[in-house]
Write a structure and sequence with these properties.
This protein is an alpha/beta fold. 36% of the residues lie in helices and 22% in strands. The strands form 7 sheets. Strands 31-32-33-34-35-36-38-37 form an 8-stranded mixed beta sheet, with helices on both faces. A 7-stranded mixed beta sheet has the order 9-8-11-10-12-13-14, with helices on both faces. Strands 15, 16, 17, 18, 19 and 20 form a 6-stranded parallel beta sheet that branches. The relative contact order is 0.07.
């Protein structure tokens, strides 16, 4: 991850690729079996309203259209150049495109980094020209792009895509072509199709940013093989997952890492598990198959999200209902427990021989009216989170009549409705009616159940973005002596800290640890054990013994001085047997913890794509066998820590026994994430086990592996993190004009209540000046969007005073445009705190932060009657431009 480019080009010039007015096809051909022929053929005579220029130095015309020898000879400036020439010619062609003012390029040719050293050299030349002329490039190895709404088929695919609301972005050109064939048969439409190729420039993050703001796109689906810039990808997905569903298939689920790990964490934290954790944190839905990809995207765009996993199944055939139930349970879903009122109502309308249990089998004799009465009753049941209507054509009900009833009754509920019409020709028109009216329909019940469960996963993932955490300390000061410990082991050319050194790190971050002492001789061991109190635990101390339990280097329940002496000598012998060359340095002695209720593992490792990741799960000696782990990413807050734990069996076991230790573990995880933020030198760390009792949790062993193979001073600050941590550097102390002290600091998720109180205190005028409208009440979701932010994309500085009680009295927000060149800001100050210099100070802070972030300009839209803010910005050097009689635009150049 440290090698990732940190620049964010974003969506700049992507309109030239996806909405071009003039296109050049370089390598256009009359040879029908060539890529150049198909590229040009797909652009002409199909309704695309732009101008297309063939470029071929050897022909005056191509496919009957005047051709040009090179792009510089085209009389008008071209927006998009599609290049289909041999790889060795492309750097020169890209340079010519740059000098001709072309902003967008698609390279369909192959033969670059996948071809070895020479191909990598060609890529470097292309990037040099791209950066010089500020171009955007899709590819190489791209199939091309499509925008069906404007009849743009800038690809060499034979069949154009149908128009729709899904943006499909694929890393595989072959799969992209196959999906288009399937989609045509399945009547799936697209707002765009993009084959990204090897992503030399435009990548997933850029495209999510672009289609996230595209009004013609309702959902985004991705086929992913690898992620080039994980920080940009997660930032983009987190930014838009709340507004538009993002669904993906990630190939390579079972790839083995093949690298030996020095910690349990490294062994259980595989590449695919890390991807899973990243997608969950970003609010993305990961599915298993291509048909799931589009089923899920359409359903999420059509239907409300389920609030839970409880599904009510209504069917006119028992077999499909049972199969749907089996599949639901296998996917960790649940059948809705029907309420007594629902059961009573069903008894009144169904024959006595019908099943009143969920799934509700109304039998094949049921006419459409029976479907209607049962749906009317079930749609009112409070226990259900969603409904699946299964229809088989052998029954009495007509499929079209049944479909119309489903559409009519769907207006009576705000819960998702899915359908499965299992017939052929008789059901085709019924499916069309359902889809037209926003009811997802499937040919098998299993597809419907799978889609419902993916919708539930999406809802759960979104809750991570919406839930307000309890207040935990934002950060602890970095203890300076820990740096000295790392310096010491660097001089000793070690990469593994001994357990005592590792536990020092935990103690410094107030993570509870057991009292730990070292004895180098049997006599010292007896003295130490007596001091700690029996029973004690003895652990062999040897730099060469990484996993003590594997070498039988741990002795539990030592009760007497005689046993201490005996086991001291025995441990020395075990070390020699384990590795004859191993150095025995003595024993570690700890008190034996009684009343143990469980063992926990908390650890971290550096992932090559996602940087430092956090692992939580079942600990102890069998950790690698149980593989009961969940993956998260620093920074953590209380909600993220709880969600990380909830995915594990050990947490469910502790909760089922009602041990009140969860809050303690949440606190440990938050502090652990702070440790990782502060020390990029940590490559792997195990805290294993953390012994859990009824009311507490304490670490009894730890191992830290440090990175010795790199110059850490050259790493960008926080470069080991895929998610930007809380920017403490922006915290400042200040005083109002009346002398009252104020803390200016970045906002955090825990501020929701304080921010609500500020908004509720605003006068109508102040509210209109800030939001351009009167907002009577801020919803939880809206406030969460203001508080739970991505510090890579925006910064909000709040002014907090603590005189009587904690309160936020003003706020300023700076939102960065993709590409990080420009930012939009807004400022608001509570009415009773105005005219005390706070507004001016907040604008100053925004200017300072904008400069620190490397922005070129910042701006704000201001109501023209907001004279105070206009005067303030003018005084700060902003230029004012009247947009219309109601709006003024303020702009300040920062560099």
């Amino acid at each position: 991850m440290e090698g990732e480019e940190t620049s964010r080009v974003g969506t700049e010039n992507l309109d030239k690729i996806f909405n071009p007015q003039r296109i050049a096809v370089i390598g256009a051909s009359d040879r029908e079996d060539s890529v150049g022929f198909r590229l040009l053929r797909n652009l002409i005579g199909v309704g695309y309203k732009g101008v297309v220029y063939p470029v071929n130095p050897f022909r005056p015309t191509v496919q009957g259209i005047t051709a040009y020898p090179n792009i510089k000879r085209i009389p008008r400036q071209v927006d998009l150049a599609i290049i289909a020439t041999p790889a060795h010619t492309i750097p020169q062609i890209v340079e010519e495109c740059g000098t001709a003012g072309v902003s967008g390029v698609i390279i369909v040719s192959a033969g670059f980094k996948e071809a070895g050293k020479e191909g990598k050299s060609l890529e470097k030349q292309i990037l040099k020209h791209k950066n010089r002329y500020n171009m955007r490039i899709v590819g190489p190895n791209s199939l091309g792009v499509m925008r069906p709404r404007i009849k743009l088929n800038a690809s060499f695919v034979n069949k154009p895509a149908n128009s729709g609301k899904i943006a499909f972005i694929s890393q595989s050109a072959a799969l992209c072509a196959s999906v288009l064939d399937w989609a045509s048969e399945a009547h799936v439409g697209f707002s765009a199709v993009v084959s990204v190729g090897s992503m030399l420039d435009v990548d997933f993050g850029d495209l999510i940013d672009y289609f996230g703001t595209d009004t013609h796109t309702a959902s985004i689906v991705l086929y992913v093989e690898s992620i080039k810039n994980s920080r940009k990808f997660l930032s983009a997905t987190r930014g838009f997952a709340r507004a538009k569903p993002i669904v993906l298939v990630k190939a390579g689920r079972f790839r083995e890492s093949a690298k030996a790990a020095l910690s349990h964490t490294g062994a259980v934290c595989g590449e695919d598990a890390v991807y899973d954790g990243a997608f969950r944190r970003a609010g993305v839905v990961r599915v298993e198959a291509i048909n799931d990809l589009f089923n899920c995207a359409e359903a999420l765009a059509m239907q409300p999200n389920p609030k839970g996993p409880n599904l009510t199944i209504i069917t006119n055939a028992g077999g499909p209902g049972i199969m749907a139930t089996d599949f639901l349970i296998a996917k960790n879903g649940k059948l809705s427990p029907l309420s007594s009122e629902t059961i009573q109502a069903l008894n009144s309308v169904l024959p006595s021989y019908c099943s009143i249990l969920n799934p509700i089998d109304i039998l094949e004799e049921a006419p459409a009216d029976r479907f209607k009465r049962v749906m009317e009753i079930c749609f009112k049941d409070p226990n259900s989170d969603g409904f699946l209507i299964i229809y088989t054509p052998q029954g009495a009900a007509d499929p079209v009549e049944t479909a119309n009833i489903i559409v009519e009754l769907s207006r009576q509920t705000k819960k998702p409705i899915l359908s499965s019409l299992m017939g052929g020709d008789r059901c085709r028109e019924a499916r069309r009616i359902l889809r037209k009216n926003g009811i997802p329909t499937f040919t098998t019940p299993e597809q419907a159940v799978s889609t419902f469960m993916y919708m539930h996963i999406y809802t759960k993932n979104l809750e991570l973005l919406y839930e307000t955490p309890e207040e935990f300390p934002v950060g602890l000061p970095t203890p300076t002596f820990l740096g000295e410990v790392l310096g010491k082991i660097s001089k000793e050319r070690r990469k593994v800290l001994n357990p005592l050194e590792s536990l020092q790190f935990l103690e410094a971050y107030k993570i509870p640890t057991v009292k730990t002492l070292i004895a180098k001789t049997p006599k010292e061991a007896v003295t130490v054990a007596s001091k700690l109190g029996y029973p004690v635990v003895l652990k062999a101390l040897s730099p060469q013994m990484i996993h003590k339990s594997r070498a039988e280097g741990v002795v539990l329940n030592v009760w007497s001085p005689a046993q201490v002496k005996e086991f001291f000598k025995e441990l020395a012998e075990r070390v020699r047997k384990y590795k004859p060359e191993a150095e025995f340095q003595g024993v570690i002695i700890q008190p034996m913890i009684q009343n143990k209720k469980g063992e926990i593992l908390i650890g971290s490792k550096k992932d090559s794509h996602f940087g430092s990741v956090i692992v939580f799960g079942t600990g102890g000696t069998a950790v690698e066998l149980s593989k009961d782990v969940s993956i998260g990413f620093p920074p953590l807050n209380q909600v993220l820590a709880r969600r990380l734990m909830e995915n594990t069996a050990i947490h469910k076991l502790l909760e089922s026994n009602k041990y009140p230790v969860s809050t303690r573990l949440e606190e440990i995880l938050v502090k652990f994430s702070q440790l990782l933020i502060h020390f990029p030198e940590i490559k792997e760390i195990d805290i294993n086990p953390i012994i859990v009792s009824e009311n507490d949790a304490v670490a009894v062993d730890a191992r830290i592996v440090v990175d010795t193979d790199r110059n850490l001073k050259k790493i960008q600050p926080r470069g080991h993190l895929v998610i930007a941590p809380y920017p403490k550097r922006y915290i400042t102390q200040w005083k109002l004009k009346d002398g009252k002290p104020v803390v200016l600091r970045p906002i955090k998720p825990e501020d929701e209540t304080l921010l609500r109180e500020l908004f509720q205190s605003l006068s109508e005028e102040t509210m209109r000046f800030r939001f351009f409208q009167l907002i009577r009440d801020m919803s939880h979701e809206t406030l969460t969007r203001y508080c739970n932010i991505d510090y890579d994309r925006e910064i909000a500085i709040v002014a907090e005073t603590k005189k009587d009680k904690r309160r936020i009295i003003g706020a300023a927000r700076l939102i960065l445009e993709p590409g990080r060149r420009r930012g939009e800001f807004a400022v608001v100050v509570g009415d009773q705190w105005q005219r005390l210099g706070l507004g001016s100070k907040l604008v100053d802070r925004i200017i300072e932060i904008g400069k620190d972030m490397g922005l070129k300009t910042i701006g704000a839209d201001i109501l023209s009657r907001n004279f105070k803010t206009i005067r303030l910005c003018t005084k700060k050097g902003f230029t004012m431009e009247s947009v219309d009689e109601d709006l003024t635009k303020a702009t300040l150049k920062l560099s």
